[in-house]
């Protein structure tokens, strides 16, 4: 399928989605959300894809939601319809049983920051800037900023971030736990692909179970989450990869996983 606001390619078990609205600094609008939802559905059904990289290119990740579209929202019901599209994409990213790595260069602001928050891992170039400046125009983040951000960096720092609307650079974002790694801008995609390939070579059923256990457990009390983790653990003992992994460890050799 041809897309107008994103670029999409697959190779070596990796899928790369690139936001492609250079004239708007990759501002997110209804068409972007629609195309992201479509490509995520395609990836979900593709057994050849193990890991996803989401990027905005070397100049800008996403400068926020398209302000022209926001300016046309005149009622709470219209705002709800717009947010429903965004939530559908962000929820699909979390529910996708394949890890998503955000490779972030330049600005990741507002909805762009929220898009990064919905990814599993985040690698940023040293030129990256992050912020949730919605408070400065009289609104709050509506795509998960008030919910995912505290879960990632902690409630105290998240409140400061959201109350002030201040921007932070990549080093500060790494320091507070928003990022997994900061790298030179020129090596961003190489670093993202290296991490993606490392993850892609893991046994895929166990990898999917890991994401399910983490994301599912976060929405439960501890006792329920521990039971859910145990169930995910138990099910893996019905797989060939579990048996191969244990045997390879005992025989001191590299395992050959078949993802079965």
Characterization of this structure:
By secondary structure, the protein is of the alpha/beta class. It has two domains: 6-200, 2-enoyl-CoA Hydratase, Chain A, domain 1; 204-250, Lyase 2-enoyl-coa Hydratase, Chain  A, domain 2, CATH 1.10.12.10. Helix content is 48%, strand content 15%. The strands form two sheets. Strands 1-2-3-4-6-9 form a six-stranded mixed sheet, with helices on both faces. Strands 5-7-8 form a three-stranded mixed sheet. Helix 1 runs parallel beside helix 3 (76-95), helix 5 crosses helix 6 (155-164) and helix 9 (204-217) runs antiparallel to helix 10. The longest helix has 20 residues, at 76-95. The protein is globular, with a radius of gyration of 19 Å. The model has no long low-confidence stretch (mean pLDDT 95).
